[in-house]
Amino acid sequence: MDIRIRDGIVCEVGELLRPEDSEDVIDARNAYVAPGFIDMHVHLREPGNPEKETIATGCAAAVAGGFTAVGAMPNTHPALDTPEMVRWVIEAAAAAGLARVYPIAAITHGRQGKEPVDYAGLAGAGAVAFSDDGSTIESAIVQTSAALRAGKSGRAFITHCENAAIKQRDEFDPAAEASAVVRDIAIARATSVPWHIAHVSTHAALEAIASAKHARVACTAEATPHHLVFTRMDAEGLGAAAKVHPPLRSADDVAALRKAVRNGTIDAFASDHAPHADTTSPGFSGLEIAIGAYALALPDLPLRRYVEMLSCNPARILGVPGGTLVVGSPADVTIFADRDWVVDPKEFYSKGKCTPFAGMTLPRRAIATIVAGSAVMQNYRVAAWSTR
Ligand SMILES: [Zn+2]
Questions:
Q1: How many whole angstroms from 135 Cα to the centroid of ligand 1?
Q2: 132 Cα: distance to centroid of ligand 1 (angstroms)
Q3: Using the 8-state DSSP alphabet, how is residue 312 labeled?
Q4: In what order do the strands lie in the sheet with 129-131?
Q5: In 3-state terms, what secondary structure has residue 288?
Q6: Whose CB among 14, 103, 156, 293 lies 3.0–4.6 Å from 225's, allowing a Cys bridge?
Q7: pLDDT by residue (tens digit) across 176-190?
Q8: pTM for this model (two decimals)
Q9: Alpha-carbon span 25 to 35, nearest angstrom
Q10: Neighbours of 369 (CB within 10 A)
C-alpha cells in the first residue's frame, strides 16, 4: 500500500498511488510502515536539569528512535504540578518542532505524596495523565482520594510501584514491587479509575495484573527494554550501567515478562528514557535503542502485536490521537526495518549516553519518522538538527 499525506493528515491509502507534481516521495521498500510509535514513559529533564536533557534533545532522541510522540513524566525540578508548567512544556515542545510531547502531571504537590494537585486545571492545560513516577505514594488513603479526584478529569492514572520500606531493607526484593502493585490494583478495583502500572518487572506483579484483568479491573501495564533483555546476572558485568528502578530481575522474571507481552498481560512498551549527565545515577537513555531492544527480546512477536504495543495501545491508554493510519487521521508515521545495527551511545541525539545496550547488535531500527506529515527523521538523521 502507498499512503498519501496532505496538510498533516492521511488523505489516501491504496495500491500504486501516483505522486503528484509537488509531492515528496519516501521509498519504504523492504521496510514496514506503521502508525507513529508513542513512548508513554520518558523523562525529558526540563525544567530543572538541561545538562541531562532538554525538551529539544529529548524530542530529537524520540524521532531518531522512531517515536512520533512521548509522554513526559513530571519528576522535573520543580515537578510538573501547575497548569503554567504544563503549558510551558507544551510550548517548549512546539518550539522544538520534532515529536509531539504529552505532559504527564504530578499526582501530588512536588511529588511529595501528600497534597493533591489541581487535577481539572492541569487536565485543562493539556496534561494527558497523572503520575508521581519515580516515587510510590506511601499512604493508601492519599492514593485513593487522589485517584478519585484525578479520575474525574478523565485522564489516565499511572503509578510507579515500589514499596519504599521493603526496598530499603533489600533493594532487590521482588515483594517491594508486587506488594505495591497488589495495593494499587485493590484501589483501582474499589474506585473504578482506569489505572496504568509503569515498568512492571516481576513475575509476582504480573500474576496480580493478570488476575485483575481476568476480574475486569480497568488496569493496564507497560514493560521496558532493559527489563525485557537483562537479568541480575547481566548486571554484574554491566556495572553502573545496570542501575535502575525497579532493578534488573531474575531470569524467571524476565521470562514471565516476555510471556506477558505475548499474552496481553502487558499492554504497552515504554522505554523509561532516563538520561543523566553522569554514569552513576539510576536509569539510562532508552529512546534510541527501544524498538531494536523489543525486537531483540521478542524476535517471534507478531508484527501486528509489536505495533499494537508501540502505537495503538499507548494512544488508547493516554487518550491521545494516533495508533491508526486510516484516512483522516494525523499523519504520524514510523517506518522501520529489520536491519542489524550496533549501538554506539556517542551517536545518540539524547544528552544521556549511558545505556546497558552499548556495543550490542540490535535487529530492528527506525529509518524514517513522520510527524504531522513532516519527515523529521530520515536515514537516521534528524531534520535540521545540525543547524541548531
Ligand atoms: Zn518509574
A1: 7
A2: 8
A3: I
A4: 37-42, 67-72, 100-105, 129-131, 156-159, 195-197, 219-223, 268-269
A5: coil
A6: 293
A7: 999 999 999 999 999
A8: 0.96
A9: 17
A10: 28
Measured between alpha carbons, how far is residue 350 from residues 45, 56, 59, 135, 207 in Å? Answer: 11, 9, 8, 24, 35
Residue ranges of domains in the chain, CATH in brackets = 35-382 (3.20.20.140)
Nearest to 335 by CA among 7, 13, 33, 19: 33
Centre of ligand 1 from the C-alpha of residue 273, in Å: 10
Task: Tell me if residue 126 falls in helix, strand or coil.
Answer: coil
Question: What dihedral angle (degrees, nearest 10) is formed by the CA atoms of 261, 265, 267, 273?
Answer: -70
> What pLDDT, in 10s, does the model give residues 229-278?
999 988 888 877 788 999 999 999 999 999 999 999 999 999 999 999 88
Has 272 been annotated as catalytic?
yes
How sure is the predictor about 386, in pLDDT bands with cuts at 50, 70 and 90?
low
State the amino acid at position 243 in one-letter form.
K
Q: How far is the CA of 162 from the centre of ligand 1 (A)?
A: 9
Provide DSSP, 316-333.
HHHT-S-S---TTSB--E
Which alpha helices (DSSP H) does 240-301 contain, by range?
Answer: 251-263, 290-297
- Residues whose Cβ atom is located within 5 A of ion ligand 1: 133, 160, 198
Is the Cβ–Cβ distance between 105 and 86 less than 8 Å? yes
Rounded distance between C-alpha atoms, residue 38 and residue 101, angstroms:
10
Question: Residue 7 region, left (φ>0) first, then alpha (ψ -120 to 50), else beta?
Answer: left
pLDDT in tens, 277-335: 887 788 899 999 999 999 999 999 999 999 999 999 999 999 999 999 999 999 999 99
**Angle of the 55-64 helix axis to the 83-96 helix axis, nearest 10:** 50
Nearest to 85 by CA among 142, 30, 36, 125: 125
* Residues linked to residue 157 through DSSP beta bridges, in sequence order: 130, 195
Which of these is catalytic: 173, 272, 332, 338? Answer: 272
> Hey, what's the cell of 174?
521482588
The DSSP secondary structure of 29-68, one letter per residue, reads TTSEEEEPEEEEEE---TTT-TTT--HHHHHHHHHHTTEE
The rounded distance, in Å, linking the Cα atoms of 98 and 370 is 9
280 Cα to the center of ligand 1, angstroms: 17
Extended strands (E) in the chain: 2-6, 9-14, 32-35, 37-42, 67-72, 100-105, 129-131, 156-159, 195-197, 219-223, 268-269, 333-337, 341-342, 361-362, 365-371, 374-378, 381-382
